[in-house]
Q: What sequence folds into this?
């Protein structure tokens, strides 16, 4: 049996290789790291998480991301299995110890007799064979050139920013306190999963002034800053209005200052655990393109972080993706070169979970092809099906931008109340319909 080749061992590529092998088909996973490094990755491990350690909400009843988690678990996904094994307290979110998570994914792939990992850079798209391109936002220059030459159009691009990480023992807990927003979580650890740093109005105003005045990374000639709204640098959000951050990552709602419960904070900066030991915390939503020196100065203005030591400062990188609605069919194949499938962030989905889900789907489709069968996508009523439908034709090609999974991609429910007041009944109805549809899709294979 001819193998399936996968380029890129990120979350999408790792999940694709796992799904191919689960179907009894040999998989060859090509990964250029660590021989050829990227500025953002630190190891040669598969599925290394760069921007954050969170897979976001794990609520599969009222949240589209949680429903996507459910579907990946139902399909025997490696990424969800390893995330569950190495999860950290994070309120209602699924966060992981990123180093242990990536190490576990790598070990599972290397231990599988049907998976071969080749440490090599693929610099040109192959002419024949059964291939999945899952190179993500940091596609090498040579392969990116090959993709542009083949598609006949420039890939779109935005800039993805990385949040800083703080050593936990340098956070002043006489100022900060532990609490998840609205005390969400089934256990005490979940309800105390975040560290919160409060600001009064003068502190907030001074912080915004410093943020706006700080020296920023300059773009190269010819580059434009077409950011994805879900991953905006904090200073770009501040430029949109002085109150923007108070209604975004610094919103104070659902939190009570444990030290001064009578005082309502004007704004709150949250930090989320980044490793199992609890020694590292990332500043939630604080992706940035400030220069390193400026970051240290500005972030130490946050109450509780005056003496903070940073394990990693923020950064910024170019993130390229295809105009998939014009290029890919609903089997995720390049329309004029159907031996090539694309998966992950390069297809125009945004987020770790969404990228891995597209890898899962591409892997199953490629394995079916290797066995002489055709596998269509899940129903559009499912989270996975809604995503792949969006990127392969559901989106407007002229204005196509990266998209997280959300209920806006799902077909409407008949006779269900719309608007904010209807969500209580509508969202569980969406997820129940999705579960039924996804189970039926799996049972038919």
A:
């Amino acid at each position: 049996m001819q193998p399936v080749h996968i380029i890129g061992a990120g979350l999408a590529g790792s999940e694709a290789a796992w799904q191919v092998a689960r179907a009894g088909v040999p998989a060859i996973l090509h990964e250029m790291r660590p021989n050829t490094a990227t500025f953002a990755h630190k190891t040669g491990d598969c599925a290394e998480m760069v921007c954050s350690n969170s897979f976001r909400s794990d609520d599969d009843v009222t949240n589209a991301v949680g429903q996507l988690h459910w579907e990946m678990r139902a399909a025997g996904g490696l990424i969800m299995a390893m995330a569950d094994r190495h999860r950290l307290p994070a309120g209602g979110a699924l966060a992981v110890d990123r180093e242990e998570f990536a190490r576990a994914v790598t070990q599972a792939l290397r231990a599988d007799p049907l998976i071969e990992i080749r440490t090599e850079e693929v610099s040109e798209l192959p002419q024949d064979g059964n291939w999945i391109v899952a190179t993500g936002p940091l596609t090498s220059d040579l392969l990116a050139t090959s993709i542009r030459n083949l598609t006949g159009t420039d890939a779109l691009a935005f800039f993805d920013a990385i949040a800083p990480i703080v050593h936990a023992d340098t956070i002043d807990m006489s100022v900060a306190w532990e609490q998840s927003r609205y005390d969400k979580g089934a256990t005490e650890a979940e309800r105390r999963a975040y560290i919160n740093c409060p600001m009064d109005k003068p502190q907030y105003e001074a912080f915004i002034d410093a943020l706006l005045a700080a020296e920023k990374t300059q773009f190269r000639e010819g580059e434009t800053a077409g950011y994805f709204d879900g991953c905006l640098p904090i200073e770009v959000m501040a430029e949109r209005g002085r109150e923007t951050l108070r209604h975004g990552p610094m919103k104070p709602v659902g939190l009570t200052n444990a030290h001064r419960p009578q005082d309502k904070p004007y704004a709150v900066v949250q930090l989320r655990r980044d490793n199992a030991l609890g020694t590292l915390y990332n500043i939630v939503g604080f992706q940035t393109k400030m220069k390193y020196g400026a970051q240290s100065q500005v972030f130490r203005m946050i109450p509780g972080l005056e003496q903070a030591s940073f394990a990693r400062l923020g950064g910024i990188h170019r993130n390229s993706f295809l105009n998939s609605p014009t290029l890919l069919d609903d089997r995720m194949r390049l329309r004029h070169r159907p031996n090539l499938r694309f998966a992950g962030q390069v297809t125009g989905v945004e987020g770790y979970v969404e990228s891995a889900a597209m890898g899962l789907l591409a892997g199953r489709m490629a394995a079916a092809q290797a066995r002489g069968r055709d596998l269509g996508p899940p129903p559009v009523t499912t989270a996975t099906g809604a995503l792949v439908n969006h990127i392969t034709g559901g989106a407007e090609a002229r204005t196509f931008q990266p998209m997280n999974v959300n209920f806006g991609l799902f077909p409407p429910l008949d006779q269900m109340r719309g608007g904010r007041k209807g969500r209580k009944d509508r969202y569980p109805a969406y997820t129940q319909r999705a579960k039924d549809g996804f189970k039926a899709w799996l049972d038919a294979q």
Observations:
- The chain is about 30% helix and 15% strand.
- The chain has a mean pLDDT of 90.
- Residues 423-443 form the longest helix (21 residues).
